[in-house]
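Issue 218. Parser rejects a valid record. Input:
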Amino acid sequence: MMVPWVLLLLGALAAVVAPRLLARADWPEREPVVALWVWQCVVAGVLLSFALSMTISAAAAWQAVRGPVFAHAPGGVVEAYALGVGGPWAAGTAVLLACGALWTAAMLTQEIRRTRLRRRQRRTELLVRSPLLPGEEPGPERLVVLEGARPDAWWLPGAAPRLVITTGALQRLKGRQLDAVLAHEQGHAAARHDWLLHCSEALATGFPQVPVFAAFRDEMHRLVELAADDVASRRFGRLTIALALVELNEHRGVFGPCPTPQAQVPQRVHRLLTATPRLTAGRRLRLTAAAALVPSVPLLVAFIPGLSTLG
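Output the parser choked on:
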C-alpha cells in the first residue's frame, strides 16, 4: 500500500519546490493578489497531502477508522487500497501525522487567543486615549484620531473595526495622500488580510523547522502590503501613495544606510514609482487556474485506487 507514502512525498516535494519557484519569479511583485492565492493553494496542498496520508494510514491500521471512512465504498475499492496489508508502519505514520495535526490546531488556537488579547488591550488603550463623546455610539468602521507627534495609521480589525490615525500623520500627509493611506488600510480590511497573517504566523511558530511555513509567513506580510498599495494606487495614483509612504516612514530611518526592520518600505516605494507592467489577463488566469489545481493533486492521488476500481 503505497498511497500514504506517495502523499507524504508529494507534500514534501511541494513544500520544497514551490517556495523556490516563487522566490525566483518576478510576477508576484506585479500581481500580489495572485501571489497570495498561489501561496495559499501551495500551503493547502501540503497540509491536505499530510491529512490524507494520515487518514489512509489510520484506516489501514485500525478497523475503527476504516469502517467510517469506507462505509459507503464498494468492496472492490477497499481491496484496491490493500488496507489489510498496511504493516506496522501504518499505525506509526498515522499517530505521527495525527500529532502534527493536533499541534497545528493547538498553534492556531493559541494564535487566536493571543490575537484576541492584543485586540482587547489595544481597544482599551484607544478608549483611554480617545474616549467616546457623550451620546456617541461605538459603531463599525469608526475613525479614531489619536494625539501623537509620530505619524502613523493602522487598521484594528475585529467585531467593531477601527481605523486609527495620529495627529502627526494628519500634519505630515498632504492633500490626497491622507485619502490614499486610508484607502490602503481599508484595502487590508476588505480582503481580511488579518486572517492570512494569523494563520501563517501560527504555522511558522508551530513548525519553526519547516521552511515552507516560514516563507509563507514572510511572504504574507510582504504581499498583503503590496496588495493594499495597489488598492490605494488604483484610486489615487501610484505617486500619491508612494509619497504618503515616505512621509509616514521617513522618521523611522528606513531610507538610510542602516535600515530598520521596516526595510521593505523602500522596495514598496520603488515598486510604485517604477510602475512595472502587470500581467496580461490570460496569464493571470492561467496562474490562478494552475494554483487552484495544487490542492486537487493530493486528492487525485488518494482516490486513484478507488477510481481505477470503479472504472
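Fixed in the parser; the record now loads. The longest strand covers residues 142-146.
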